[in-house]
Write a structure and sequence with these properties.
The relative contact order is 0.13. Strands 1, 3, 4, 8, 11 and 13 form a 6-stranded antiparallel beta sheet that branches. The longest helix is centred in the first third of the chain and has 28 residues. The protein has 2 domains: 169 residues, Galactose-binding lectin (Jelly Rolls, Sandwich), CATH 2.60.120; 171 residues, Jelly Rolls, CATH 2.60.120.260. Helices cover 12% and strands 37% of the residues. By secondary structure, it is mainly β. The N terminus is likely disordered. The chain contains 5 helices and 25 strands. It binds calcium ion (CA). The site of calcium ion has 10 residues, from strand 25.
Amino acid sequence: MKKTLIFFITLITVFCACACGKNETEVRTDERMISVNALSAPSDLDSVRMIGPVGKVTTSDKGACVTVTSDPYKAGFKLDTTALYLPFSDERAEKDYTDFTNTEFVAFDVFSESDETVSLDVRLVFSDVDLGQAVNRSKCGLPQTFEIKPNSWNRVAYSVKRELIPKTEGVPALTVKGAYIEFPAVENDTDFHLKDLRLYTTDKPVPALSSAVKSGEICSFDSYWQTELTRVDYYWDTRLIPQIRRETGITSDGIGASLKVTAKAGTAAGSVSGRYPGILIGEELLASVDFSDYPDDAKLCFDLFAPKNGGIDRLFLSLYVGSTRFFNGKAFYAVPGQWTTVSYTVAELNAAATDDANFEKTNRIFVRWSEFTGTDKVFYLDNFRVVAP
Ligand SMILES: [Ca+2]
């Protein structure tokens, strides 16, 4: 009798396991999928935009057809990417899927007419988009790169890291406005067909962002989220948008990662244009950093590397509390081909501070460079920290 009972219990358990497993698969493909835009009819493209002055989007029998222009240097414009913006809402159709609190994947299919395998970068866009102009990439996540095979359909599935979606004060929902797709440079005009923009949802809670930093650490770039939350400033000129990447191969201490920055060539010297693009370690990254209780002779330090060829030479550090800049440093210089440490004492940083804007209250750190012409320049930053005397 006992044996029979155990057998039945086992049988029931096995049945349950099978049923649950099957259910989960069905849920994933059906109930958890939201079709945002089929990208098939001409009206589906009403809300879709090419970003910047090159490339075009039309419909084809395979879906939305993006033609990537082979010569991106037309009409005096210097752009290295053709980009498409796919919003997750459509006012006219009264559709709004921008609440990403439960969204775990963004997916679409791509058919490439390129002869070779190419890569496609997909970013999430967190702010409203000026459709005539560029997406403000300082309000985008870092790209996920997908390999697209030639002459076949490729499924692109962007894995949403919900804990990294910037929060708006007083708004409980996590909002993502759309997806920004960067196409590769091509030798001849090339068509890419896109269809079935869709989202997959989950019941799992949003993972907690473990943004703890070590004692004295401001930003080591060792954790993935530290690069993801680094922002850029480019004076609303897409040509100046710095490219940032998490770099594990080149670090100042052989640990973790650094931030690789590619500063883009512009159209005039900064002394003429007044433009100083840069990278920003902002509120989100500094939220868990405690700047208090450091004496005047403590030092804010970070490490800088610029390659011998194509490295940047001159940079500037500035510190803010909100929109108030209380420290605007003189230029500091890279030593080509070697890591150097840049440091400032708290006393230096506080030389022009006020009660409201001072080192203790720092919530934005900018590293900027003067706009330049010619070719792009590279540098690496690592281990922003405060060192007690
Ligand atoms: Ca590091």
